C-alpha cells in the first residue's frame, strides 16, 4: 500500500466530522427536512411587520461568522382530542450569539424585533394572535457533519436539556438573512442602532425597504446538491410530535 493512499484513507475516515467549535462552520442558512422554511425576507417583512406563512411546517436558523443569528420556525402541534384541530405557531427572532469555549451556544434576541403568530382554530374563534416575542435560546452543544445519505452538511443542535432538535441541513452559504441591526425600534427600546424619533425610525425603515428590494441581489448562495428531499408524508405526519416538544422548549 502506498503511503499516499494510507494518508488519504486516514483523511477520509475523519472527513465527515467537523469539530464545530468554529463560527466559520456555523455560517449559513440551515433548514429542516421540509426545506420550506428559510430565514430572510421570504419569511418576515420587517417594514410592514408581517410574517409570511410558509407552505409547510419546519424550522430554519441562520448564523453569520461575525456573531449574528436569525430564526424562522413554523411549528404545528397535534390536538389529541381533535385531530382536525392542530394549533400552530410561527415565530421570527434575530440577534447576536455567544459560542462558549465548552461548546454551548447562546442566542440573545433583539427584544423589540421578535414576532409570533399563534393560531389555535378550535379555541380562538378563527382569530390568530400576533405578538412581540423575545426568548433567549440556549443550545447545550451541537455538531456539524457531512450527512452521507443526503450529501449535505447537517447541523445537529441539542436543546438545553440535551434533547436533540430536528436536524437542519445547509441551504445557503453565505446565509439568507434580514439586516442584522434592530429592525423595529420603538420608544420602549432602550438599545438599538437608531434613535426613537419618528424621523430616524423612518430612515431606518427606508433602508430596510431598499434592502428588501435588493433581495434578488443577495449574496446568499444556495448550497449544493440542492433539493435535499421531497417533503415526504412520513415526515409531515411526525411534525406534530416534534412541534409539541419544540414548543415546550420555546416557552420554558
Ligand atoms: C458551558 O458553560 C455554561 C456556563 O458556565 C453552562 O451553563 C453550560 O451548561 C456548559 N455547557 C456544557 C456543554 O457543559
Ligand atoms: C422580553 O421578555 C421578558 C419576559 O420574558 C419581558 O419581561 C420583557 O419586557 C420583554 N422585552 C421586550 C422589549 O419586549
Automatic annotation (TrEMBL):
Mode of membrane association: Single-pass type I membrane protein
Compositional bias (Polar residues): 181-198
Record GO terms (molecular function): unfolded protein binding
Pfam families per UniProt: Rot1 (PF10681)
Keyword Endoplasmic reticulum set for record: yes
Comp. bias intervals (Basic and acidic residues): 203-216
Superkingdom of source: Eukaryota
Primary location recorded for the protein, binned into one broad class: endoplasmic reticulum
Signal sequence residues: 1-20
Subcellular location as annotated: Endoplasmic reticulum membrane
GO BP annotations, alphabetical order: 'de novo' protein folding; budding cell apical bud growth
Region listing for Disordered, in residue ranges: 180-220
Keywords: Endoplasmic reticulum, Membrane, Signal, Transmembrane, Transmembrane helix
GO cellular component, one term: endoplasmic reticulum membrane
Similarity section: Belongs to the ROT1 family.
Function: Required for normal levels of the cell wall 1,6-beta-glucan. Involved in a protein folding machinery chaperoning proteins acting in various physiological processes including cell wall synthesis and lysis of autophagic bodies.
Designated name of the protein: Protein ROT1
Source organism per UniProt: Zygosaccharomyces mellis
Record gene name: ROT1
Amino acid at each position: 500500500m502506498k503511503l499516499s493512499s494510507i494518508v488519504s484513507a486516514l483523511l477520509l475516515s475523519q472527513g465527515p466530522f467537523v469539530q464545530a467549535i468554529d463560527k466559520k462552520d456555523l455560517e449559513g442558512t440551515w433548514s429542516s427536512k421540509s426545506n420550506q422554511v428559510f430565514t430572510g425576507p421570504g419569511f418576515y417583512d420587517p417594514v410592514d411587520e408581517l410574517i409570511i406563512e410558509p407552505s409547510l411546517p419546519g424550522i430554519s436558523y441562520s448564523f453569520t461568522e461575525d456573531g449574528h443569528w436569525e430564526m424562522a420556525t413554523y411549528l404545528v402541534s397535534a390536538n389529541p382530542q381533535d385531530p382536525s384541530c392542530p394549533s400552530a405557531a410561527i415565530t421570527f427572532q434575530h440577534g447576536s450569539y455567544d459560542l462558549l469555549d465548552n461548546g454551548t451556544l447562546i442566542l440573545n434576541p433583539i427584544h423589540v424585533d421578535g414576532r409570533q403568530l399563534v393560531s389555535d382554530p378550535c379555541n380562538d374563534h378563527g382569530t390568530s394572535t400576533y405578538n412581540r416575542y423575545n426568548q433567549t435560546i440556549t443550545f447545550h452543544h451541537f455538531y456539524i457533519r457531512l450527512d452521507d445519505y443526503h450529501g449535505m452538511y447537517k447541523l445537529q443542535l441539542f436543546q438545553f436539556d440535551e434533547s436533540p432538535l430536528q436536524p437542519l441541513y445547509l441551504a445557503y452559504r453565505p446565509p439568507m438573512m434580514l439586516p442584522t441591526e434592530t429592525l423595529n425600534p420603538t420608544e420602549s427600546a432602550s438599545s438599538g442602532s437608531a434613535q426613537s424619533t419618528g424621523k430616524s425610525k423612518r430612515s431606518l425603515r427606508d433602508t430596510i425597504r431598499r434592502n428588501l428590494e435588493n433581495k434578488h441581489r443577495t449574496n446568499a448562495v444556495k448550497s449544493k446538491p440542492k433539493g435535499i428531499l421531497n417533503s415526504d408524508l412520513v415526515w409531515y405526519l411526525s411534525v406534530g410530535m416534534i412541534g409539541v416538544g419544540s414548543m415546550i422548549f420555546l416557552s420554558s
